[in-house]
Amino acid sequence: MIVRRLKEIIGTERDKKAKNGNWVSRRFLLAKDGMGFSFHETTIFAGTETRIWYKNHLEAVYCVAGKGELERLDTKEIIPITDGTMYALNGHEPHLLRASEDLRLVCVFNPPLIGTEDHNSDGVYATPEEESAKS
Ligand code: 9YT
After folding, report:
1. I need a surface site. Which of 10, 37, 53, 104 has the fewest CB within 10 A?
2. How crowded is the C-beta side of 93, counted as CA atoms within 13 Å?
3. Dist. CA 25 → ligand 1 center (Å)
4. Considering only CA atoms, which residue is closest to atom 11 of ligand 1?
5. What is the DSSP string of 79-123?
6. For ligand 1, what atom is nearest to the CA of residue 16?
7. 28: nearest Cα among 13, 43, 17
């Protein structure tokens, strides 16, 4: 059994800050934990817009606090995001994620992240194999 607390993660390698400064991701479970998915708490900072396209992953997101919106780049649909909203990117949908207040999101990825992933200029996370080969 694995038990982890946020205060044990902050400041460690599981505490990943985006290089563009838009978000911080506390990665409670990663590929090396052997669960078959990774599990994160992400804060998207107020006033930011993040381009995302998880072409190599499936992601489910549950908002527990804050306000924002997701704009699908394929359909132009705008989806408001507040406490209690869940969305699942089961079609690898490219999108923009905007926060008007700090958004606190619980996120699950399949395949699991290895831990060092950050978005490239298209908003993509590398495959686990590509990401491992970087270090
Ligand atoms: C919702 C989303 O994908 N935000 C970007 C960070 C990501 N959730 C992560 O790596 O934890």
Report:
1. 10
2. 20
3. 7
4. 25
5. EEEETT-EEE-TT---EEEEESSPEEEEEEEESPP-S-----TTS
6. 10
7. 13
pLDDT in 10s for each residue of the chain, 135 residues: 999 999 999 999 999 999 999 999 999 999 999 999 999 999 999 999 999 999 999 999 999 999 999 999 999 999 999 999 999 999 999 999 999 999 999 999 999 999 999 999 999 999 999 999 997
The pTM for the full model equals: 0.96
- 64/36 Cα distance (integer angstroms): 23
In the DSSP assignment, the letter for residue 32 is G
Expressed in percent and rounded to 5, the helix, strand and coil fractions of the chain are 10, 40, 50
Measured in angstroms, how far is the CA atom of residue 1 from the centroid of ligand 1? 25
